[in-house]
Amino acid sequence: MRVFSISSQKGGTAKTSTAAALATGATARGYRTLCIDLDPQGSLTAILRGHPEKGNSYQLLKGQKVEPQTETGVMTHIIPAALELAGLDAELASTPGRDNRLRNALEAYRSDFDFVFIDTAPTLGTLLINALTASSDVIIPVQADMFATQSLYQLKGTIDQVRQYCNPELQVCGVLFTRYSGRSTLSRNMWEKTYNLAEEKLGYHCFKWPIREAIAVKEAQALRVPLLRYAPKSNPCQDYEKALDEIIGG
Questions:
Q1: Low-confidence ranges of the chain (pLDDT < 50)
Q2: Is 90 buried (19+), middle (13-18) or exposed (0-12) by CB count in 10 A?
Q3: Is this prediction's pTM over 0.90?
Q4: Is the dihedral of CA 80, 34, 164, 175 positive or negative?
Q5: Is residue 228 within 8 Å of 154, Cβ to Cβ?
Q6: What's the confidence (pLDDT) of residue 11?
Q7: What is the CATH number of the domain that holds 180?
Q8: Is CB count within 10 Å lower at the N or C end of the chain?
């Protein structure tokens, strides 16, 4: 079972859209796929129509067995987020082994799923550390703006610490450029700058194709429908399929 954290310490990088698109794409290819929403905002939960009252990731981190959920027309399994996640840092502050809670909990699902995709909050804390500690891979979405390189350096520091203290096997699957507009000089310049930084200075693989911007992504989120179902021929959906080819093969 490969476990992917979709992580960035900066908001607005399309983490949730990426987690949903990759997970539903993998499901469509016949893989047994689970999503875990670790963001208290619960955006991935909304897209995949999870029901926190039936079991959620807060309960999972508290040591309870949670049954993954599916909705007709979605099929990708999800363990939804809950508002209580927002207070977990303080709640577990003095608890031994707090960074290993998700890794330990996922052992119960190891034989049930091929892939797990974790949507994380854009802040450094217990939730992000738990996600990275439980993961085999991390995918880093970045957006075309002046803070892209800064966010990469910030996350690198976190990844290095997790490798040193919690999960030496953690791999960076790749940096995924999102919300890309080929007609924008800024997008083109930032893609080139970020690509060079990631590959040459940080040693991180970059996905070959950026995820193009399109209104279909926001429309699908508003309707609580996966992009693959709402607009399978849209540019971003096709781009996410190319990213999946790099991650798991065609």
A1: 250
A2: exposed
A3: yes
A4: negative
A5: no
A6: 81
A7: 3.40.50.300
A8: C
Domain count, the chain: 1
DSSP notation for the chain: -EEEEE--SSSSS-HHHHHHHHHHHHHHTT--EEEEE--TT-HHHHHTT--GGG--HHHHHTT-----B--TTT--EEE---GGGGGHHHHTTT-TTGGGHHHHHHGGGTTT-SEEEEE--SS-SHHHHHHHHH-SEEEEEEESSTTHHHHHHHHHHHHHHHHHHT-TT-EEEEEEEESB-TT-HHHHHHHHHHHHIIIIIS---B-SS--B--HHHHHHHHTT--HHHH-TTSHHHHHHHHHHHHHH--
Q: Give dist(CA 179, CA 147) in Å, integer.
A: 14
d(CA 213, CA 206): 18
* Parent domain of 180: 2-248
Scan for tokens 């790749």, then name that residue: 174
